[in-house]
């Protein structure tokens, strides 16, 4: 098998590792490309191509994450991971771990970990690498990696809700939510929301303040029921779509360009959080991006009496 073929076979795994460490599609793709360049330039064939490339992409991702953390401290407004509509890597033996680890909620919890803790957790807990492989990848002893894994597991466990929804229950609740959203049904929406639900938008300072955070079932339901039907008046549409392994939707302007993504965090029989990515810099991998300001101005015109 040629180097190119070996690399392409492993590309989905490498991207999935890098994305979980970085929370960014673009940065993950760049890390995978850099791993290929280093592999292609290597004068010798490694004993294990998978181990070599996994180690390489992990170390690149750790370095990128350390730099990214400085930028994220200066980020305007709430920061959310870049939305991922489909994880390219599949492993039936670890399907549950893979799906859980790519959710917005999990990626935000991973943000609380140090870069090393995050890398160790991703390699060990998500992808099932042995501690010897993890140690080689992050350049630490096995004992140190075991300690990092314990700390990371504790942080992740403490931040998760006690009762997460089964997939069927989750999808049925999401379908009811999007039906109520389409109809502007305040009561129907409020019934599905947790009392302390939060709605957060990531606009990065580049979109209108539709991205402000809102808390409480009544407030969130009223805002959604007011805004979404009004958006329909200017031909903004949404299509339910799995986002980061969770129920969500992609909103598009009248030309079909991506306006934002929305994802639901469902647990204990209610929607616990709604997260929307509006920052155009985080949507380009999904296709042509809408002009959020143009949509905002069209909404203002649609609200005027007599329009």
UniProtKB/TrEMBL annotation:
Q: What InterPro entries does UniProt report for this protein, alphabetically?
A: ECF_Sigma-70_Domain, NTF2-like_dom_sf, RNA_pol_sigma-70_dom, RNA_pol_sigma-70_ECF, RNA_pol_sigma70_r2, RNA_pol_sigma70_r4_t2, RNA_pol_sigma_r2, RNA_pol_sigma_r3/r4-like
List residues of the RNA polymerase sigma factor 70 region 4 type domain.
105-156
Provide the leader sequence positions.
none
Annotated ranges, domain RNA polymerase sigma-70 region: 7-67
**Residue intervals of the SnoaL-like domain:** 175-251
For the keyword Transcription, the answer is: yes
Q: Which Gene3D superfamilies match?
A: 1.10.1740.10, 3.10.450.50, Winged helix-like DNA-binding domain superfamily/Winged helix DNA-binding domain
The record's annotation in Pfam families points to:
Sigma70_r2 (PF04542), Sigma70_r4_2 (PF08281), SnoaL_2 (PF12680)
Record flagged with keyword Transcription regulation: yes
**Keywords in UniProt for this one?**
Sigma factor, Transcription, Transcription regulation
Q: Which NCBIfam families match?
A: PRK09636.1 (NF007214), sigma70-ECF (TIGR02937), SigX4 (TIGR02957)
Subunit-level organization: Interacts transiently with the RNA polymerase catalytic core formed by RpoA, RpoB, RpoC and RpoZ (2 alpha, 1 beta, 1 beta' and 1 omega subunit) to form the RNA polymerase holoenzyme that can initiate transcription.
Q: Which family does it belong to?
A: Belongs to the sigma-70 factor family. ECF subfamily.
Task: Please report the name of this protein according to its UniProt entry.
Answer: RNA polymerase sigma-70 factor
Q: Which organism is it from?
A: Kitasatospora putterlickiae
